[in-house]
Amino acid sequence: MEHIDHILIVDDDREIRELVSSYLKKNGLRVTAVPDGRHMRSFLEANSVDLIILDVMMPGDDGLVLSRELRAGRHKAIPIVMLTARTDEMDRIIGLEMGADDYLAKPFSARELLARIKAVLRRTRMLPPNLQVSEAGQLLSFGKWKLDTTARHLIDSDGTVIALSGAEYRLLRVFIDHPQRVLNRDQLLNLTQGRDAELFDRSIDLLVSRVRQRLGDDAREPIYIKTVRSEGYVFSMPIEITEAR
């Protein structure tokens, strides 16, 4: 039997829920719509979905809180498209750092939302095996650090655990999976977010800075992530792979 993608809409605006639900159903998708985080949690306890459309501005737990919660729990593999009335670039970056896979500002066209949904699902399913959440647990060692691919955090040589946001983890994994190779901003954007470069060019520099901070890397004389002037960034450390215990 052919799989029909199931989309969960979480938005306190009834009109948006109804309009988006109607459009997506007409285009062959299964749709469930709920008004808030409480109903979202209840539904996910007993049902599986392929993607969540999550409004940022909601009473109670907002979309950023819910996105962070989803990424920290057993539903962390479900892709998320965020909706918001905010248009500031920093808000978009925060949404992506909280674990959203894409970000669409209101007002939006249902047709564009459908295109974004399809693109996110396609990217998620095209991830190479070494980036799948269900991968066997591995420790990726470099310098004084180990990256736990199951828990998605860093461990230093003293055993101290350093937490990573979803965006930080994705960026670090891209670097680790392409060591000794110069990656420009367009490539990093496509590999981490799949977004158009002109919208999020500065977000990559912000994320590189944040990952360097996590690694204790001096931006003036980095040893892990080096800047190649006018070209991009390169991860300069060799990688050793071991099975996590």
Note down, in words, how this protein is organized.
The chain has 245 residues and is of the alpha/beta class. The protein folds into two domains: 6-126, 3-Layer(aba) Sandwich (Rossmann fold); 138-243, Arc Repressor Mutant, subunit A. Helix content is 40%, strand content 22%. The chain contains eight helices and 13 strands. The longest helix is centred in the last third of the chain and has 19 residues, at 197-215. The radius of gyration is 19 Å and the shape is elongated.
Features:
single chain; 245 residues; alpha/beta; Rossmann fold; Arc Repressor Mutant, subunit A; 8 helices; 40% helix; 22% strand; elongated
| CATH second-level architecture of the largest domain | 3-Layer(aba) Sandwich
The main sheet orders its strands as 2-1-3-4-5
Supply the CATH superfamily name of the largest domain. Response regulator
The total strand number stands at 13
Computed Rg: 19 Å
Q: Main sheet, how many strands, which sense, barrel? A: 5 strands, parallel
**Could you give the order of the helices and strands?**
EHEHEHEHEHEEEEHEHHEEE
* Parts with pLDDT < 50 across at least 5 consecutive residues: 127-136, 196-200
What is the CATH first-level class name of the largest domain?
Alpha Beta
Mean pLDDT: 83
In helices, the fraction of residues equals 40-55%
Tally of separate domains: 2
CATH T-level fold name of the largest domain: Rossmann fold
Tally of individual helices: 8
Question: How far apart, in Å, are the first and last alpha carbons?
Answer: 38 Å
Quote the beta fraction.
Answer: 15-25%
Give the structural class: alpha/beta
Basic shape: elongated
